[in-house]
Write a structure and sequence with these properties.
This protein is α/β, with parallel strands linked by helices. It folds into 2 domains: 173 residues, Quinone Oxidoreductase, Chain A, domain 1, CATH 3.90.180.10; 151 residues, Rossmann fold, CATH 3.40.50.720. Helices cover 27% and strands 24% of the residues. The strands form 4 sheets. Strands 3, 4, 5, 8, 9, 16 and 17 form a 7-stranded mixed sheet that branches. The chain has a 6-stranded parallel sheet with strand order 12-11-10-13-14-15, with helices on both faces. It has a two-stranded antiparallel ribbon with strand order 1-2. Helix 11 links the parallel strand 16 and strand 17. The longest helix has 14 residues. The N and C termini lie close together (11 Å).
């Protein structure tokens, strides 16, 4: 098959062997696959894979790896021991985890679990979800990105006496905004340096957008929080203000620490970004303010299913996030373009 192959820090498109489905696995043809910031983190920071003692993510620079974990695909074959409950030709997607004899592997982040930047890859039959929708595959594939922020917003359990501040309006931040809007939680304030991302945040449901180069988002939040509201007991923060819930969705060193130093006392912080090179935090400041910081983790399976259904049904319109589509030959250049913070939220690879 043809694939965009990562090896020794470089991606090139060439012919490699077709994957062979093992027990309980499906062979699928990639129809569309989004380029995610975590693809860039994976290829740029091999040390992060080396530190992953779970074995789920492994970057061996001396072997071929086919990235791509936000996919819509078509079933074209069955491995041994499969139930064959999904007919050939059916469009599917799944949580990007492949069950192998050596354990669970993240699809697109291991040599033995190739991803959607190739013509074919493998899925665990039990995890596959049928696409019940007429929407294009380029739209459906965005569901996995939506699931990450969807899960973070669901786990945060923002109350009616808390106001959300979403820092970073990439795919994850936008999906946090969309699910908070779906839950009826607001007002939602979104923060990003790029005007195009702020416009997309408004399209996805943000009430207020802030350019941090022009105004402090924390002061803007305080001004919003001081607006008259019905009194309530739950979620009340310092000085009688509503509680603040900040979602860090950037993944660049210094951002989480700037939130710690700038936010209100008693703030709850959900760090979904997580720079692979790590971060230095003012923990004494966090202690003095009584901050509660929860670090990411992937989406819960139930939340992934909810996000997938919302996208496939059209309940959640993700088209404001979509940029251009590219073929396999253009993947190396598209990966570079995805580094542009002012570029489209999602560039989608269509291998065919």
């Amino acid at each position: 098959m043809r694939a965009a192959v990562l090896r020794s820090g470089t991606v090139e498109t060439r012919v490699i062997g077709d994957p062979v489905p093992g027990p309980g696995q499906l062979l699928v043809r990639s129809l569309a696959c989004g380029i995610c910031a975590s693809d860039l983190h994976f290829m740029d920071h091999p040390e992060a894979g080396a530190e992953d003692d779970s074995g789920m993510s492994t970057y061996d620079q001396d072997v071929d790896i086919v990235m791509g974990h936000e996919y819509c695909a078509e079933v074209v074959g069955y491995g041994p021991g499969t139930e064959r409950r999904i007919p050939l030709g059916t469009r599917v997607s799944s949580l990007p985890v492949l069950t192998t004899p050596g354990g669970r592997k993240i699809i697109g982040q291991n040599p033995e679990s190739p991803g959607g930047f190739g013509e074919y890859f493998l899925l665990t039959e039990a995890a596959a979800r049928t696409v019940v929708s007429d929407l294009p595959s380029e739209v459906v594939c965005v569901a996995d990105a939506i699931a990450v922020g969807w899960s973070a917003a669901a786990r945060a359990r923002v109350t009616t006496r808390e106001s959300a501040l979403v820092v970073g309006c990439g795919a994850i931040g936008l999906s946090v905004i969309a699910h908070l809007r779906h839950l009826g939680r607001g007002p939602v304030m979104a923060v990003d340096f790029m005007a195009s991302r702020r416009e997309t945040a408004l399209a996805m449901g943000a009430d207020i957008v802030i350019d941090p180069a022009e105004a402090s988002p924390y002061q803007a939040w305080r001004d919003l929080a001081r607006a008259p509201a019905e009194p309530a007991a739950e979620g009340v923060g310092a000085a009688g203000l509503p509680g603040c819930v900040v979602f860090e969705c950037v993944g660049v060193p210094g951002v989480l620490d700037s939130i710690i130093r700038g936010c209100e006392r008693g703030t709850r912080i959900f760090s979904v970004g997580g720079p692979p090179e790590g971060e230095r935090l003012h923990t004494l400041t966090a202690k003095r303010k009584g901050l509660n910081i929860q670090f990411g983790g992937g989406p819960l399976p139930a939340h992934w299913d909810e996000a997938f259904e919302a996208v496939c049904s059209g309940t959640l319109d993700v088209t404001p996030m979509l940029g251009r589509t590219v073929g396999l030959d253009d993947v190396p250049a598209a990966l570079d373009a995805a580094r542009d913070a002012d570029g489209p939220v999602r560039i989608v690879v269509v291998p065919g």
